[in-house]
Amino acid sequence: MVTLAMLLLLSGAYRSYKTIFETISLRVQDQNNAIKLKDSQARLSLHVQQTPLAVIEMDTDMNITQWNNAASKIFGFNPSETIGKSIIELVVPESARAAVANVVTSLHNLHGGTHSINENVTKSGEIILCEWFNTPLIGDDGNVIGIASLAQDITERQRTETMKNEFISIVSHELRTPLTSMKGSLGLVLGGATGELSDKTRQFLSMADQNAERLSLLISDILDIQSIESGTLSYRQEVFDLRSVIQLSLEQNRHHIQQSGIAVVPPELPHPLMTYIDPSRIQQVLDNLLSNAIKFSPPDGTITISADSNNSQVTVSIKDEGEGVPDEFIPHLFEKFTQGEASNTRNFSGTGLGLSIAKGIIEHHGGKIFYSRPASEGSQFNFELPLINKS
């Protein structure tokens, strides 16, 4: 009996020890987790304070709950001057408050994050331009409990960009005037207006005329890409049959095609392709893609143009039989000034702006432009445009 009692006593003691040990272990684990959480929060707070971006948090009434060092540097207010105050009344000019209210409504309705560029006012009253990234903060119940914003001052960047664009525009226009005069004069001389020319003289003048044409195209491309980036490129859109644009592009490039010795297979288009486009701009895209296809095709190659449509859109494709585009270069095809790298030999002239301009034009029309590798050798460039619903 004594032995049994001792066993029961030891068993009870062991269970008590195990329970106490587990309780202590859980407490230690909770303390460790709390220490880790505190350390993590401290590091996060340090990052928030040291980041060059303004980090601002607001409650659902747009009253500020957090304001970091960068926010103080950008807007001039110390945290003590901002906490609990309305972000709208503090940094938003009166003329822009209605627009900001719409952004806030969108965030409260869980429409996801927003991105905007707005004029803001500093403590000193200076108007600055800021880029904002706003995200709703969601509570455990799924409701919005606040808004977190990142902001950066882009005033100087915008000023520099404006100066650059103005400089490019002025220089390009100043170059265009004398260049037009030079091209006109060269054309008259080559046309025999000043009398017969020797073969050598004609050769040199033809070379000058070709280079003047290249320079003219370069200036036009620079002005177009600048206008696309600033959103000022002019468009005159109308309801138009895309078949006419394709035919006109082929007709106007006939001489270039014949000189190249390359065969061009036109598309079979038995039915109208009614679109809402600027015909001259879409032709500009076609001319660029056709010119590239000729440039990179072998002398005896064939270029195939096709147009496939469904009820909502038409896809125009231009396929050549050249060497194709290296895989590593495909992601950069529609970036600016990248034409040279597309060729292994770098022997092809061009501005490197054509595809970037084509992308801007097609996207303005609500379409997209993309590259695809055909089953056989070569390259294929495609663009899609919405069709007008016949119903």
Q: What form results from the Cα inertia axes?
A: elongated
Report helical residue fraction.
40-55%
Biggest β-sheet description: 5 strands, antiparallel
Tell me the total number of β-strands: 12
CATH H level, superfamily name of the largest domain: Histidine kinase-like ATPase, C-terminal domain
State the CATH topology of the largest domain: Heat Shock Protein 90
Q: Count of helices?
A: 10
**Strand fraction band?**
15-25%
Low-confidence stretches: 340-348
Elements, N to C (H/E): HEEHHHEEEHHEHHEEHEEHEE
CATH architecture of the largest domain: 2-Layer Sandwich
Rounded to the nearest angstrom, the distance between the terminal CA atoms is 100 Å
CATH class of the largest domain: Alpha Beta
| Structural class label | alpha+beta
What's the arrangement of strands in the largest beta sheet? 2-1-5-4-3
Could you walk me through the main structural features you see in this protein, from its secondary elements to its overall organization?
This protein is an alpha+beta fold. The chain folds into four domains: 50 residues; 103 residues, 2-Layer Sandwich (Beta-Lactamase), CATH 3.30.450.20; 73 residues, Helix Hairpins (Orthogonal Bundle); 149 residues, Heat Shock Protein 90 (2-Layer Sandwich). The chain is built from ten helices and twelve strands. A five-stranded antiparallel beta sheet has the order 2-1-5-4-3. The chain has a five-stranded mixed beta sheet with strand order 7-9-10-12-11. The protein has a two-stranded antiparallel ribbon with strand order 6-8. Helix 6 packs across helix 10 and helix 7 packs across helix 9. The longest helix is centred in the N-terminal third of the chain and has 49 residues. It is elongated, with a radius of gyration of 33 Å. 20% of the residues are buried.
